[in-house]
Backbone:
């Protein structure tokens, strides 16, 4: 039912300079896998196999990652390191990848609008790769796809944040229609301290109905002079229905240094060490 997932990936990642001067922030590794690959795997788990990536200048390594590297594969063929490519090979085989370049950085709403040509006239998911979501059971997108099958409207993922952090997010208020599910009546992008309508913050997982594109085309620049998806969703909520879902699972803000380190430590302890990964780490500290 949801066949395509849009990945806005054109940003500069300035909070991680100088690393992101030549490497897309979406390619920064959490242990041994880049952020965007975690997002693609989450989409595949939800039954979505069309990956639509909005890129920008200097982002060619995103395309290279989801493609064969014949020289590398030849060099490690037959060695004990070849198995390290099993996961990414499976991901490449399971998904299709299309790309479009965002010519100007005009906000998340503009990035999503740029992907219209890839998505077409159908409902679709959106994943922001620097919001890493980890679950032992169903992933966040799987949870949201199940809700979309029932309600057939746009859905945003939300989590409770401390009140002194609401100014960093889009924040919703609404009527709780059942456990952890709200019908949105208001949305504010990065509200001023003390003015947030609640402490339910939108994180980087969305399911959007295709009429959002027409709304985005008419949406004026908002906070920070950018076209905000929050403003378009508020209009959609006022004329129809938008749901906010308080998801189950762990979420890490890998757009911040602190969140990136937390995610790395969590995934190392709870995923990597518990997996059957070859070349398990030795007791001595050795980078590489």
Residues:
């Amino acid at each position: 039912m949801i066949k395509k997932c849009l990945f806005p990936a054109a940003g500069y990642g300035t909070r991680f300079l100088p690393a992101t001067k030549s490497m897309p922030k979406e390619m920064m590794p959490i242990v041994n896998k880049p952020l965007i690959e975690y997002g693609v795997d989450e989409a595949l788990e939800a039954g979505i196999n069309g990956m639509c990536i909005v890129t920008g200048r200097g982002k060619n390594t995103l395309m290279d990652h989801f493609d064969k590297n014949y020289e590398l594969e030849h060099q490690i063929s037959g060695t004990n390191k070849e198995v390290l490519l099993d996961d990414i090979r499976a991901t490449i085989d399971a998904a299709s990848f299309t790309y479009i370049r965002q010519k100007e950085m005009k906000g998340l709403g503009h990035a999503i609008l740029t992907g219209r040509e890839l998505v077409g006239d159908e409902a679709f998911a959106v994943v922001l790769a620097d919001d890493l979501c980890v679950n032992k059971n169903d992933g966040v997108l799987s949870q949201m796809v199940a809700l979309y099958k029932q309600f057939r409207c746009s859905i945003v993922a939300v989590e409770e944040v401390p009140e002194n952090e609401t100014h960093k997010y889009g924040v919703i208020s609404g009527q709780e229609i059942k456990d952890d599910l709200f019908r949105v009546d208001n949305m504010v992008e990065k509200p001023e301290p003390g003015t947030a309508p609640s402490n339910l913050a939108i994180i980087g997982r969305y399911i959007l109905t295709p009429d959002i594109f027409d709304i985005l085309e008419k949406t004026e620049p908002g906070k920070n002079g950018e076209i905000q998806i929050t403003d378009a969703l508020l209009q959609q909520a006022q004329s129809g229905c938008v749901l906010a879902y308080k998801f189950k699972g762990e979420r890490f803000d890998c757009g911040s240094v602190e969140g990136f380190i937390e995610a790395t430590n969590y995934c190392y302890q709870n995923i990597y060490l518990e997996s059957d990964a070859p070349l398990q780490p030795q007791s001595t500290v050795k980078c590489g």
